[in-house]
Amino acid sequence: MKLLHTSDWHIGRTLYGRKRYEEFEAFLDWLVRVIQQHRIDALLVAGDVFDTSAPSNRAQQLYYRLLCRVAASCCRHVVIVAGNHDSPSFLSAPKELLKALDVHVVGSPGEDPQDEVLVLRDKQGRPELIVCAVPYLRDRDIRVAQAGESIEDKERSLVDGIRRHYAEVAARAEGRRAELYAEVPIVATGHLFAAGAQTVDGDGVRELYVGSLAHVNSGIFPDCFDYLALGHLHVPQMVSGLETMRYSGSPLPMGFGEAQQQKYVVLVDFKSRTANPADKTSQPGIELFPVPVFQKLERVRGDWEGIASRIIELAAAGSPVWLEIIYDGTEVIGDLRQRLDAAISGTGMEILRVKNNRIVDRVLGQIHEEETLDDLNLDDVFERCLAMHDVPEEQRPELFRAYQETLASLYQDDVRAE
């Protein structure tokens, strides 16, 4: 039994306004080739299939096209659970139809934990794998809010709720295995934040529970799980150093902070496992398959000389890279964007974001030592900006009135929208 673990596709995600459908399509094409070349029996997607709860038509087209191609391949089963970015109802809507393709979708936990226990069978109808398909557990799924509870109480209640849910699902899975008289492995999914796990700045990973981190440790998961396939975090990693408890990570870099990170999907091979499920010394084989880079991203940071030098190197290599430029030089450059556009002219490069830290420093430099940015209101910040740009005193009152009128107009628009 060969299982392929992946997660956090975020189909439809943009990067500073740039659509990335070609990258998603290239990844899904590559995924089908991996399934065929390595004779994968089951594909497991641990949440965040889409980037939003209302994915575009193009995103849906890519998703359903993949499912059709996988169903026509050697892969006998697909198991998909919802993540925090997914709409449980949207993902679950076609679940009965998808069952005809051996695609099993779990969008939200049911009233009976048995609903999350899937028995996957081979071509002869014999059970070959039990999957505890646990989706992202929302606050309302696992606890009842109490009046007057503290943050610590809420944190404790969330973790206890997650632990209790996994214990109930695991008990149903072990009971089902006993009924089948089949020594088959049990695999579980999760879309959560493990304590001590690694993230990257700018990766878009959200905290899952408002007012509480609710990072769970590995001890909350039952021992009967032969492999735990996690989603939510974009950095591929093990949990607590355990080979069989891991995040596959996102297959595409979700931001420039992930640009230098190697992405993977995880092959879990149970064929070498002994027939005794109680023998925990016998673990499935784990192999990481590196995901190719379908669109190169690079963050270029430094003073003007360093940035210009790196752009020249990339141009000489003919690299069609998307760039994030962060200017950290001491020189004030008012025409930074114009210089950058000239530097990449005629190349295949594209600049998606420019951050001029020198300008930011000048604004913050107007703040007195005893002040912080939180001490200033919107009017104060605007006045500091006028001073920073050396706007003549006689022009400032009119500009300030126009600024206040703009804020008032925006506020009225927000009220009408509500």
Description:
By secondary structure, the chain is of the alpha/beta class. The protein folds into 2 domains: 2-290, Metallo-dependent phosphatases (Purple Acid Phosphatase, chain A, domain 2), CATH 3.60.21.10; 297-417, Double Stranded RNA Binding Domain. It has 11 helices and 15 strands. It has helices at 21-37, 57-71, 88-92, 95-98, 139-142, 151-180, 304-316, 336-344, 357-365, 378-388, 396-417, and strands spanning 2-6, 42-46, 77-81, 103-106, 117-121, 127-132, 186-191, 227-231, 237-239, 242-247, 264-269, 285-290, 297-302, 322-327, 350-356. The strands form 3 sheets. Strands 4-3-2-1-11-12 form a 6-stranded mixed β-sheet. It has a 6-stranded mixed β-sheet with strand order 5-6-7-8-10-9, covered by helices on one side. Strand 2 (42-46), helix 2 and strand 3 form a beta-alpha-beta unit. Helix 10 runs antiparallel to helix 11 (396-417). The longest helix has 30 residues, at 151-180. The radius of gyration is 26 Å and the shape is globular. Heterodimer of SbcC and SbcD. Residues 293-388 form the Nuclease SbcCD subunit D C-terminal domain. Residues 1-235 form the Calcineurin-like phosphoesterase domain.
Quick take:
33% of the residues lie in helices and 19% in strands. The protein is α/β, with parallel strands linked by helices.
Distance between the first and last residues' Cα: 52 Å
Order of helices and strands: EHEHEHHEEEHHEEEEEEEHEHEHHH
Low-confidence stretches: 366-370
- Under CATH at level 1, the class of the largest domain stands as Alpha Beta
Globular, elongated, flat, extended or rod-shaped: what is the shape? Answer: globular
Number of strands: 15
On the 0-100 scale, what is the average pLDDT? Answer: 86
Helix content: 25-40%
Order of adjacent strands in the largest pleated sheet: 4-3-2-1-11-12
Cα gyration radius (Å): 26 Å
CATH superfamily of the largest domain: Metallo-dependent phosphatases
Largest sheet: 6 strands, mixed
Structural class, please?
A: alpha/beta
Architecture (CATH level 2) name of the largest domain? 4-Layer Sandwich
- Could you please say which CATH topology of the largest domain applies here? Purple Acid Phosphatase, chain A, domain 2
How many structural domains are formed by the residues? 2
User: How much strand content do the residues show?
Assistant: 15-25%
Number of H- or I-type helical stretches: 11
